[in-house]
Amino acid sequence: MLGEYRITGRRASEIAADVERAVAAGELPPGAALPPLRDLAGELGVNPNTVAAAYRLLRERGVIETAGRRGSRIRPRPVTTPRDQARLPVPSGARDLSAGNPDPALLPPLGPALAAAAAGPTVLYGDPVAEPELLDDFRAEFRADGAPEGELAVCSGALDTIARVLTATLRPGDTVAVEDPGWGSVLDLLPALGLRTAPVPLDDQGPLPEAVAAALDAGARALIVTSRAQNPTGAALTPARAAALRAVLAARPTTVLIEDDHGHGMVDQPFQSLAAGTVTHWALIRSAAKALGPDLRVAVSIGDADTVARVLGRQRLDAGWVSHLLQRAVLELRRRPVAPAPVYRARRDALLTALAAHGIRAHGESGLNVWIPVPDETATAAALLQRGWVTAPGARFRLGSPPGVRISISTLLPAEATALAADLAAVLARPAPGGSRLT
Fold it and tell me: What does 98-114 look like in DSSP terms, one character per residue?
């Protein structure tokens, strides 16, 4: 059925990730039939429901297809269905805390900035691809935050920049060390690019240095780190953790380092640079999405000259450039800064305090999300949905890390935080179907 290949894993996410890696590496060719649920469950020593959940994940992401009695097969042309599309429905009257969006009330109005941008000169083919004033503004900011000197590029958001850097520096089949749990869009992107993932655990201070070292020593060629407002856990690099990670990278200078600082402008933790004095190929990315508005689709990155030249060279062959109207609008908005960080911190702290009052451990050092470890994320999210709270099950963000649920706090008021914590405490204390408690 699968030839000599043997699927591995104990959790549904592990089984699905193993199949995805095998498809990306060509070890499972298009049309290959997967074992029946019970056969694979017996081989792996797991419950058939675990295999069913793994197959469901693979179907949702377009890796396999199921045709009744013919069973499940690798799709002839595997495609990726973004994890963000697999959301719980939002019933009428329910509070949607699953999306990870900023609070619209804390975003600056776009009208005046776009009007000012439109008053600028017409941009034609052959003109510079970036607004010089925008580059100067970001260069000064990068320099003030301790980033190394480098070249700048403007791309269509953080994920677009990450994809371009990976494509410019890696080959299909290469392995990338990623945070686990981590940003679901990155976890989707890597197999879509034919890259393998090496999950790296983290705590509130960021990726664990010993785990990063192990992943790189095992063959990972690149590392993606979220500087602040890590999605989904809210982790933020501290000076001590950054120093430890710099030591790991300095001993492995051929690593391609991508620093995702999408939280800049809406967090109050200082930025910690990892690239300074460590690796040859690197990129530090700052997106306008969270602080100024997701629809702006503008990110400015700084990196080594070779990497940035490759990114810009490929960009000229496809998108060409990012609209100068959007670039000018971002520059205008940066001249009229807003300060949402204290508001988001107050809302995070309100939920963390309310959860702690019930003895519930949670993570949310920075950013828009709070991550809550739970024994059964599907049952927890479903039970909270019955009580009017829509949360994000952790499967959207995990590879091999333990289950959890993500709650976006961007619009959560203190009174709501108290009610949500009480409802979650009741859910976790209720008897599970097997008679034991969820906690």
Answer: -S-PPPGGGSPPSHHHH
Instruction: Output the pLDDT for position 65.
Output: 77
Nearest to 162 by CA among 139, 178, 138, 181: 178
**Tokens read off for 140:** 């000064």
How far is the C-alpha of 4 from the C-alpha of 38, rounded, in Å? Answer: 19
User: Do residues 350 and 217 touch, judged by C-beta distance below 8 A?
Assistant: no
- 233 and 204 in contact (C-beta within 8 Å)? yes
Q: How far is CA 161 from the centre of its chain?
A: 13
Nearest to 72 by CA among 58, 90, 85, 87: 58
Asked if omega into 91 is within 30° of 0 (cis), the reply is: no
**Cα–Cα nearest to 394, from 159, 177, 232:** 232
Question: pLDDT digit string (tens) for 214-229?
Answer: 999 999 999 999 999 9
Helices (H), 193-323: 209-217, 239-250, 289-292, 305-317
CA dihedral over 321, 322, 328, 332, signed as positive or negative: negative
pLDDT value of position 29? 86
Q: Which stretches of the chain score pLDDT less than 70?
A: 1-3, 60-62, 67-70, 76-88, 431-439
- Helix (H) / strand (E) element for 285: namely strand 281-287
pLDDT tens digits, one per residue of 306-365:
999 999 999 999 999 999 999 999 999 999 878 899 999 999 999 999 999 999 999 999
Give the C-alpha distances (Å, rounded to integers) separating 16 from 7, 8, 134.
Answer: 9, 9, 42
Threshold 0.85, pTM exceeds: no
3-state helix, strand, coil in the chain (%, to 5): 40, 15, 45
Position 320 scores a pLDDT of 96
pLDDT for residue 358 = 97
Q: Are 304 and 151 in contact (CB under 8 A)?
A: yes
Q: Is the distance from CB of 305 to CB of 280 less than 8 angstroms?
A: no
Residue 434 confidence (pLDDT): 46
Q: Which helix (H) or strand (E) holds 197?
A: strand 196-200
Question: What is the SS3 assignment for 154?
Answer: strand
Query: Coil, strand, or helix at residue 422?
Result: helix
What tokens were used for 225?
Answer: 């780190």
Continuous segment of H or E residues that includes residue 138: helix 132-144
Return the half-sphere exposure (C-beta side, CA atoms, 13 A cut-off) of residue 341. Answer: 14
SS3 state of residue 41: helix
What is the spatial distance between Cα 56 and Cα 305, in angstroms, rounded to a whole number?
A: 43
pLDDT at 435: 42
Question: Tokens 């995070």 identify what position?
Answer: 348
How high is the pLDDT of residue 359?
A: 97
Give me the amino acid identity at 179: E
